[in-house]
């Protein structure tokens, strides 16, 4: 295979609110000179961090190099809404679909258990907690079409949940915006940038992390050779954990679709404002329609988060002027939901990038000789990215793990239309989705 030049690189715009509320951190070294390793892992998000740690555990005598294009916690893993979700987004009612849901939950819960182990062992300060989450509808239509079937399917799975009527929900959340919700107890919440940082800062001794080391050239002819602006790594095996950038390396061509989502984090509420709000502490809410609705959180340090407006963004770039407009729009949405807090502003607004496949399948497993992947997490990166990276390492080491088959059962990404036909189709589909579900905003 000839050398592939990587010219489109991840961009850190320094806008991520989750990391900006954290103390400063000593970053890892950049890659310099020619280096050799037994393994190289590319991408230090949830998938790459899990892959590197698992390789170190499976092969304690091997040397693993982990490369990160920017700074740990500033990429997609540190920019999400901070939900470790244990349940599938959509549950079917047939026996095959229910069995698929059980496999999905086993994978997600293994990832949550993994995180809890690392957090406890290394005392990672990331506001990790397990209050569960609310899945909420704004309208009676949303209640009937989504929440009621969801509750029936949870019963079929023998999963615990609470049905929350509006009056009780208003008190729990401090807003009258929602009609009803289903509360499930298994979801964990955290500051995702703090979790990612903590995992990176406590890697095993046989893992060398190099930050600010983007790969600008990739060669795969026998050995793997990765070139960065400051150096070069050679290794016999690679685990690729770069999510939507995987196609730049020649893999999953026309199978990955890149989207953006915008989030805002309010300033910290005062004691008087918290009393005015009058809700329970530390809650998280997902909407019945992820594209039209709004994901929300009330954090343990008393900030309110709003994430809204998922849209097609193949360039994975956004301007500060655009984020300023988003901040104003989020403030308007905030005021609609919390009119009793007119003086609370959005302190931080940022854009994060997610990778979806048309059929919801991940990019997982052996993709080429000595190349393994865990990419395309379909907006559940905390759990699916983590377990995907861990299992990719087990597969690469020929380590027996029944969860590998569970992961493979999720399928592989479909091939989609070439651009610009893809652009037209995706934008039309999502415009229709948002319009028909506009009352759930």
Structural commentary:
The protein has helices spanning 17-20, 46-58, 76-79, 95-122, 140-156, 166-173, 192-200, 271-277, 320-337, 381-396, 402-408, 421-436, and strands at residues 4-5, 33-36, 39-42, 64-67, 83-84, 133-137, 162-165, 180-184, 188-189, 207-210, 217-221, 223-227, 231-235, 237-240, 257-266, 283-287, 295-298, 304-312, 346-356, 363-368, 371-375. It is of the alpha/beta class and 441 residues long. The strands form four sheets. Strands 7-8-6-16-17-18-15-19 form an eight-stranded mixed β-sheet. Strands 10-4-3-14-21-20 form a six-stranded mixed β-sheet, with helices on one face. Strands 1-11-12-13-2 form a five-stranded mixed β-sheet, with no helix packed on it. α2 (46-58) packs parallel to α10 (381-396) and α4 packs across α10 (381-396). The chain is globular, with a radius of gyration of 21 Å. The protein starts with a strand and ends in a 5-residue tail after the last helix. 47% of the residues are buried.
Short description:
The protein has helices at 17-20, 46-58, 76-79, 95-122, 140-156, 166-173, 192-200, 271-277, 320-337, 381-396, 402-408, 421-436; strands spanning 4-5, 33-36, 39-42, 64-67, 83-84, 133-137, 162-165, 180-184, 188-189, 207-210, 217-221, 223-227, 231-235, 237-240, 257-266, 283-287, 295-298, 304-312, 346-356, 363-368, 371-375.
Strands in their spatial order, largest beta sheet:
7-8-6-16-17-18-15-19
- What number is the mean pLDDT? 93
Overall CATH architecture of the domain at 4-79 and 193-254 and 359-408: 3-Layer(bba) Sandwich
Number of strands: 21
Beta-strand percentage? Answer: 15-25%
User: What is the helix fraction of residues, given as a range?
Assistant: 25-40%
């Amino acid at each position: 295979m000839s050398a592939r030049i990587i010219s489109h690189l991840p961009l850190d715009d320094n806008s991520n609110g989750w990391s900006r509320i954290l103390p400063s951190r000593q970053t890892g070294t950049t890659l310099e000179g020619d280096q050799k390793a037994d393994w190289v892992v590319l991408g230090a998000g949830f998938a790459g961090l899990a892959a590197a740690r698992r390789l170190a555990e499976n092969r304690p005598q091997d040397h693993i190099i982990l490369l990160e294009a920017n700074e740990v916690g500033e990429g997609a893993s540190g920019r999400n809404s901070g939900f470790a979700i244990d349940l599938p987004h959509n549950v079917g009612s047939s026996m095959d679909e229910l069995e698929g849901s059980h496999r999905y939950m086993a994978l997600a819960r293994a990832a949550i258990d993994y995180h809890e182990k690392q957090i406890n062992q290394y005392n990672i300060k990331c506001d990790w907690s397990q209050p569960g989450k609310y899945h909420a509808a704004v309208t009676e239509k949303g209640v009937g079409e989504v929440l009621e079937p969801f509750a029936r399917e949870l019963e079929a799975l023998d999963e615990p949940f609470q049905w929350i009527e509006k009056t009780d929900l208003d008190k729990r959340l401090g807003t009258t915006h929602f009609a009803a919700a289903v509360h499930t107890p298994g979801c964990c919440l955290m500051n995702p940038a703090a979790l990612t940082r903590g995992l990176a800062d406590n890697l095993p001794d046989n893992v060398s992390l190099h930050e600010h080391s983007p790969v600008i050239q990739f060669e795969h002819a026998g050995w793997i050779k990765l070139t960065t602006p400051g150096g070069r790594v050679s290794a016999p095996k690679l685990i690729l954990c770069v999510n939507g950038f995987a196609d730049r390396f020649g893999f999953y061509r026309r199978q990955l679709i890149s989207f953006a989502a915008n989030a805002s984090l309010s300033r910290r509420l005062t004691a008087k404002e918290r009393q005015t709000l009058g809700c329970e502490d530390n809650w998280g809410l997902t909407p019945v329609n992820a594209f039209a609705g709004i994901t929300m959180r009330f954090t343990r340090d008393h900030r309110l988060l709003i994430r809204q407006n998922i849209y097609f963004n193949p360039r994975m770039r956004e301007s500060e002027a655009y984020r300023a407009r988003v901040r104003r729009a989020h403030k308007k949405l905030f005021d609609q939901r919390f009119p009793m807090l007119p003086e609370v502003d959005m302190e931080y607004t940022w854009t994060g990038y997610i990778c979806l496949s048309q059929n919801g399948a991940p990019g997982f497993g052996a993709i080429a000789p000595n190349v393994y992947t865990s990419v395309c997490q379909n907006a559940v990166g905390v759990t699916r990215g983590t377990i995907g990276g861990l299992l990719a390492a087990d597969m690469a080491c020929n380590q027996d793990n029944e969860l590998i088959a569970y992961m493979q059962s999720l399928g592989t990404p479909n091939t989609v239309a070439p651009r610009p036909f893809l652009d037209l189709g995706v934008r039309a589909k999502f415009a229709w989705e948002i319009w028909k579900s506009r009352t759930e905003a």
